[in-house]
Amino acid sequence: MSFELKLQEVVKRFEGMGEKLNNPGELSSKEFAKLSKEYSDMGELVEKIQRYQASLKSFKDSEELMNDASVDAEMKELAQEEFYELKAKLPEIEREIRLSLIPKDEADAKNAILEIRAGAGGDEAGLFAAELFRMYQKYATRQGWRFEILSISDTGIGGYKEASAEINGYNVFSRLKYESGVHRVQRVPATESGGRIHTSTATVAVLPEAEEVDIHIEEKDLRIDVFRSSGPGGQSVNTTDSAIRITHLPTGLVVSQQDEKSQTKNKAKGLKVLRARLYEMERAKKEAERSALRQGQIGTGDRSERIRTYNFPQGRVTDHRINLTVYNIAEIVVEGELDQLIEPLITEDQAAKLAEAI
Description:
By secondary structure, the chain is α+β, with helices and mostly antiparallel strands. 46% of the residues lie in helices and 20% in strands. The protein has an 8-stranded mixed beta sheet. It has a 3-stranded antiparallel beta sheet with strand order 6-7-8, covered by helices on one side. Helix 1 (3-22) packs across helix 2 (29-66) and helix 2 runs antiparallel to helix 3 (73-101). The radius of gyration is 26 Å and the shape is flat.
């Protein structure tokens, strides 16, 4: 389907939705609310399309006037001026429309659950996991997001075996979803006396936070074990039987939570993480079905995928998915200035989806 025909189809659909909303007799309240939201969301796109169509018509009219022998010189000059002005403007309007036509990820506007685990590399991997956790905390602060620690299991020497946090704010998941995967660090550990460079890894998972309406968990599908919290680990490890281990029987997923002194609070936090993991499993399944033939996908979320290397001796960070290397590792890791990595990933992802949209 040509670009122009696609636009005509969008406008026709929008007008049809408007007619239905003006005569809502056959719609249930739920259907009316859903259609109203879709109509409202579509309004901005239709305005862009109408602006594009009007500009395209003016562009063609100007071209005709320029080539019309019966038109006087002054009119031709005005037509030529408009022609070149629109010729420069139309590609940008078209690009905006094409981007708007990209299917939206319903999870983009959601908050996120961040999970980081130390990988290969012993104590150094734990130290790296802790640095990554603080890096995302700094980035969240820069974005004006709220970063709430859910759990931390430390190594006793400043590193983390694993840590998780809930990040709340505007379009959190849309920006952090590209961070899921294996992160690798290359540097001389503080414990290394010979000055040799070691390679260690940590796994990052960013999950869209799921509400009860997104994922309903049946109580009968859960096995909940209560045990005594034990250190090191957590923000306030206690000695009461308040730690919770939740097993989701249908999938075998297990979530443990022990940071709170209350069983109820630990269970609530644990269910939040479990719901996010189940939601992500469902999203990954749907994405795999949609992208079965797609190559070079950005941010698949495959946790076995090595996505980025932080090389401290050379002061560089390389994202392997888009072959991007920047030489300001301290700004990224210490200051949390991640946009210089995230923005190119978003651009690349949009370009790939743009090629598929039409």
